[in-house]
Amino acid sequence: METMEIKPDLIGQSVGRLDSHEKVTGAALFTDDLQFGRKLLHARIKRSPHPHALIKSIDVSRALDLPGVKAIVTGDDFPEHIGLYLKDKHIFARERVRFVGEPVAGVAAVTEEVAEQAVELIDVEYEPLEPVFDPEFGASPEAPLIHPDLEKYEVPNFIFPQAGTNIANHFKIRKGDTGRAWERCTTIVERKFHIPHIQHVPIEPHVAIAQVDQTGKATLWASSQSPFAQRNLIAKTLGISQSDMRVIAPLVGGGFGCKAGVTMEAMPVAIATKVPGYPVKLRLTREEEFYTNFVRQGLVINIKVGCDADGKLLAMENTMFWDGGASTEYGVNITRAGGYSSTGPYDIPNVKTDSLCVYTNHPIGGAYRGFGMSELHTAVDQCMDELAEAIGMDKVAFHKLNCVRGGDTLVTGMTLHPVGLEECIDKVAKAIDWGEKPPAGAPNKRRGKGIALAWKAPAMPPNAGSSARLELNEDGTATLGVGGQEIGQGTFTAVAQIAAATLGVPYESIRIAGPLDTQYSPYEWQTVASRLTWSMGNAVRAAASDARRQILETVAEAWDEDVNDLDIVDGVVISYRSEQEQPLKEMVIYGLPNEDFTEWTGGPIVGRGMFMPTYVTGLDPETGQGERAVVHYTVGAQAFDIEIDMETGKIEVLKGAAAFDVGQAINPELVKAQIEGGFVQGLSSAVFEEIQLKEGVMQNPSFVDYRIATAADIPHEIESIIVEVPQDDGPWGARGVGEHPMIPAVAALANAIYDAVGVRMDGPPFSAEKVYLAMLDAGIVN
Amino acid sequence: MAVHNITFTLNGEAEAAVVPSHMTLLQMLREEIVMTGTKNGCAAGECGACTVLLNGEPVNSCLVLAVECDGQTLVTVEGLAHDRQLDPLQQALIEIGGVQCGFCTPGVLISARALLDRNPHPTKADVQAALVGNLCRCTGYVRIIDGVLAAAERA
User: Which of A259, A309, A351, A605 has the most C-beta neighbours closer than 10 Å?
Assistant: First the structure.
């Protein structure tokens, strides 16, 4: 990698987003805005009312008789499994249903109303089975089996399902000797936390339209973080060749992980195979969005951490029961990520971790911003706070003593690259005047401050790849083709900066080839894991370098000069030797003539680039040890300064501060926007959010009952801080930060609550009611 | 199902439509007129993505029947810019970075326009109160609020 190069001015410059004009004028097209004409069919889904039951029979005859119904499909029509990591799911349930809301049949009809009526007319006979709602019980031998065929499912070699149990993945860490280390600990904290399920809640609900032609070729238009993964998985499951399955993905109205992998998108494609020629549209209602789609898994975590008299961490034991839900096709890898990062960003020599992904009859757990790290840190960082308190050490000093540094041997045996975690800690501590405790603003209020750390590595297959293409235009601009998606994070802007800086043209000269289309866009694994700036950024840089090389070779030949004497500055090729100049305009398509126009050199310029990490190693299945578990870690810290109203339990955030080491901010204002948005999403999950499940049924599937933060709920002030310790293989040192800002929020707030009123709860959300009741229990109020 | 011939003013232009009784204003805009800037986020009046101005007042268009708009005046996000000149709110949101995924943006802009029309010099708390019905999951509202305040200052 060319990290030693001088950084161009454009890298680190906060240019404006290239998609904001179309977004403020209403011109930006999202999937639901696409028009398909009067032949469009509308799909609705018959869903299971049972958390766990056998399907005895499905009778669609009454529904088929309804005028306007064009097709009805059930699990019988689609026998193959689907799944990103563990292939344990069907597009429509076969033989058995495993959660309330699971698709059982799909209808396509001329209107949504007719489709709804047809769904009501489908008769399904069930035989209820004993359900499992508690992952700890689910992992026990007494629990009824939810997937009796677990051992038959296709699975990659880094996931370890336990046949004959509900454990879809068991990830282990055995590092050092915790048994002996406990004897040397002077202080040990042992806790159990329950982290509830939460929902992603993009403001744009899931929507997908599919059309299959008479030859069986399929096109899917979807609000998607993963057009290529969807092409691959849906094509395989339906027996279509990947190149005959085209996915077109317009701008995404928020993702946060829920539009990654395949969730509902396979259904309209499956239905469309029965009505060739007709586009079939499925748009989830907000209620369906809440209870039928992938959720953030619940977690029950037992954690034990100890340190010596000087505060040095010696040992951790950590058992995590992840509530994987009815399918763990994606969730098994969250369990793995929770396992290999189970210490948090702390240097702990002796570690024993069991991270278990457990099937339950709850909604399916999927990727959610942070991929397990928020849940994990909620436990780890509260224990650190308690340990520091127990040994009478300043909490910031305790964090700095124990936090990971470059060169440390991590929990998996991997050696950590240079990181600026200490700097992050110092900066957030300073931002909230750590150590000073001014009085609360009113007699009925108490003030508290809290801090927590975060780390996260991109969780993905070891060889997740990116590619890019840069095509030059007659006017000297360049069209950048990428397969990574703009989901609000600003990735199109960041990679346009990378392309412009590499090629030597102004930022305004880069166009993004959109919408993403698997037929034209270069391959990208998925828009997840905070990996695009780094991975796709490297591919874009390579593509722009390739285009630049082609241009300079053309000019060198035409001018009979050495390419090393040439440069591209502001869209003009210049020679430092002859001082000639040649604008890119026109020559990048038509090439250059010789002096008497009898010969031409060059031609249309198309640069190509790709990036794929080649160095991630496997981990030993029994010890979780290996040379390099992940590509890298992004680290950071967050702090809260709060007041709690003793009469109501309501928390008011006076100030929040967050610092993350992003290696190199390509666009600092976009990084800060991610930090602010993640901070508030984290805060929202800490004080409001919980999917209330009763016998497998979500009790609060609406914005009224499932509250998310509004404009009135945010901190009085958020200070966003960027730390830059470069990544050796990132573009100019960049690492991703999309997910990280939400990770430490729950623990940092919990620690601030403790500081204010001296109570700890066993899990979020820290609603006013819950805080008040905890204070009541503790005798702080009466 | 009864249908109704209605006329109304949409973004300054006379419009007519034939609408069934149960059609919402949101459906009329998106499906009949095919003007898709106004977004459907919940169809239940909870998220604010479909906010439009009805006679100058912000309403959730998913909760208004199209037939109620007969003879009324409507403004959607497409009507905020005039003669290629962006509304100061649009300009401020671009400059301050109050746009991420952009799905809540049309509704946010309309609510903010209504606020500035009745209160040209709002406080931060006024802005927060005016936007409380417009959910945003990306920005944490920070730059949206700053953008509205900046637009007010410039006006």
Answer: A259
Angle ∠(A776,A701,B76) on CA atoms, nearest 5? 115
**How high does pLDDT run on average in chain A?**
97
Q: Is A737 among the domain residues? A: yes
Average pLDDT, integer, range A443-467 = 97
- Chain A residues with beta carbon closer than 8 angstroms to that of B144: 711
Fold of B88-154: DNA polymerase; domain 1 (1.10.150)
Count of Cβ atoms closer than 10 Å to residue B2 Cβ: 8
Query: Which of A15, A21, A24 would you mutate first to test chain B, the one with the most B CBs within 10 A?
Result: A24
* Chain A, nearest residue to B89 by Cα: A24
Q: Where are the alpha helices (H) located in A504-564, listed in sequence order?
A: 537-559
A319 within a domain of the structure (yes/no): yes
Residues 97-136 of B with CB under 8 A from A: 97, 99-106, 109, 127-129, 131-136
User: Is the pLDDT score of A3 beyond 50?
Assistant: no
A718 touches B at CB < 8 Å: yes
Annotation marks residue A561 as catalytic: no
Please tell me the distance from the alpha carbon of residue A290 to that of residue A762, in angstroms, as a whole number: 24
- pLDDT band for A1, please (50, 70, 90 cuts): very low
For the domain bounded by B3-79, which CATH number is listed? Answer: 3.10.20.30
Residues of chain A numbered 636-695 and touching chain B (CB < 8 Å): 669-670, 673, 676-681
Strand ranges for A264-412 from DSSP E: 280-283, 298-307, 313-325, 350-359
A653 lies in the same domain as A730: yes
Quote the strand ranges of A646-705, DSSP E. Answer: 651-661, 693-694, 697-698
Q: Which two tokens stand for residue A143?
A: 């629990």
ipTM of the complex: 0.99
Q: Is the pLDDT of residue A55 over 90?
A: yes
**pLDDT for A594:** 84
Q: Cβ separation of A714 and B105 shorter than 8 Å?
A: no
Which of A563, A588, A611 terminates a domain? The answer is A611
User: Tens digit of pLDDT for each residue in A250-282?
Assistant: 999 999 999 999 999 999 999 999 999 999 999
Angstrom CA distances, B107 to A401, A402, B135, stand at 48, 47, 9
Average pLDDT for B45-74: 98
